[in-house]
Design brief:
Elements lengths: L14 H5 L4 H13 L14 H15 L3 H18 L7 H4 L2 H13 L2 H5 L6 H4 L6 H4 L9 H14 L10 H18 L11 H20 L16 H14 L4 H25 L10 H14 L3 H24 L1
Helix pairs in contact: 2-3, 2-4, 6-10, 6-13, 12-13, 15-16
Length: about 325
């Protein structure tokens, strides 16, 4: 990405470069860069919320810290150079903004995968290379419990902007984004949308969430890993729980056979639960009918592609609706 520094022509002072940056994300990156190389924050976090406060803060720091113009030019050129290396275009994040399922799963992936499995030893970046078993997301001190799609999307963008690739590294954030896209495609092929869990219905989501926690606890009690990523999601309502369920299932690193078995067992358990509930709401009818009537009933069921009890229910309900006014008049 080429850092957008506005339309100034041959700025006479280096601070004019900052003054003409109109992208808050770029300004925030400059502030983070200056803070990261100082022993203590030189740009207040409060100042980074708005362009109207961040620009003056950056310019004031630049002028107060470097009284001579050449020194200020050196700092500004460094900021722009690092920005060009580290800030990838907003358009590369749009697929995550437009797809809440993808954003949820990728947030789970970034916030739980160790540096070694994310990067190997390719980055030449101390925060990553010297701590391969750490998780970059938490090293960057990002929000550990985002509670909405907007918050997760913001966290992912901050993840990319806060992680600084130095001039000696050949690693590319754009390439890393491509790898993440490929990872999402793989996740989606492993765990497709379940045909009985297609919307954030409270009873279903609560049942599935508890089922996953029960499975995790059982696995842990038997000294197996369980679903570790489950502990990173903290949904606060039904839509969030729905996203978290699929985010967990798709992010969960497990043998394909284990994941497939869990999905099959969970689907079977839900259908059995529904069958038992349906039976509680039904009553048996003990009755004898003529053989011909029974044959006709069976043919009606075949014709309508349903069960005999469904044909009987339909016929009774139709007749009741036809006679309802008279029935109410007589028996109410």
């Amino acid at each position: 990405m080429s850092v957008n520094i506005g339309s100034v022509h041959q700025p006479s002072l280096p601070e004019d470069i900052i003054r003409n940056v109109n992208d808050l994300r770029t300004l925030k990156f400059f502030a983070h860069l200056l803070n990261s190389r100082a022993s203590h924050p030189v740009i207040s976090v409060i100042a980074t919320n708005e362009k109207s406060t961040l620009k003056p803060a950056l310019i004031n720091h630049l002028v107060m810290t470097h009284h001579d113009v050449p020194a200020r030019w050196e700092v500004v050129n460094w900021l722009v150079s690092e920005g060009n290396r580290n800030i990838i275009p907003n358009g590369q994040f749009e697929w995550l903004n437009e797809n809440q399922d993808a954003c949820s799963a990728i947030w789970g992936y970034l916030s739980t995968t160790t540096n070694y499995f994310l990067f190997g030893q390719q980055t030449q970046q101390p925060l990553i290379d010297r701590q391969p078993q750490a998780t970059l997301y938490h090293q960057l001190l990002l929000n550990p419990k985002p509670s909405s799609h907007a918050e997760r999307f913001t966290c992912i963008k901050l993840y990319f902007d806060t992680w600084i690739i130095g001039p000696n590294s050949t690693y590319s954030k754009s390439l890393f984004m491509d790898n993440i896209k490929n990872r999402w495609v793989s996740m989606l092929s492993e765990v497709k949308t379940l045909n009985w869990l297609i919307k954030p219905e409270r009873e279903q989501c609560e049942w599935v969430w508890n089922y996953l926690h029960d499975y995790h606890r059982k696995e842990q009690s038997e000294a197996r890993p369980g679903i570790f990523v489950l502990l990173s999601f903290h949904p606060i309502n039904d839509p969030e729980k729905f996203l978290a369920i699929y985010g967990v299932l798709r992010t969960w690193v497990a043998h394909k056979a284990e994941k497939t078995l869990l999905l099959k067992n969970m689907s079977r358990a839900w259908r059995e639960r529904q069958r038992r509930q349906d039976q509680k709401e039904k009553k048996a009818i003990n009755s004898y009918v003529d053989v011909k009537v029974k044959e006709r009933l069976a043919l009606l069921a075949r014709y309508n592609r349903c069960q005999i009890n469904e044909v009987l229910s339909d016929l009774i309900n139709k007749e009741y609706r036809r006679l309802e006014p008279e029935i109410r008049e007589q028996f109410d």
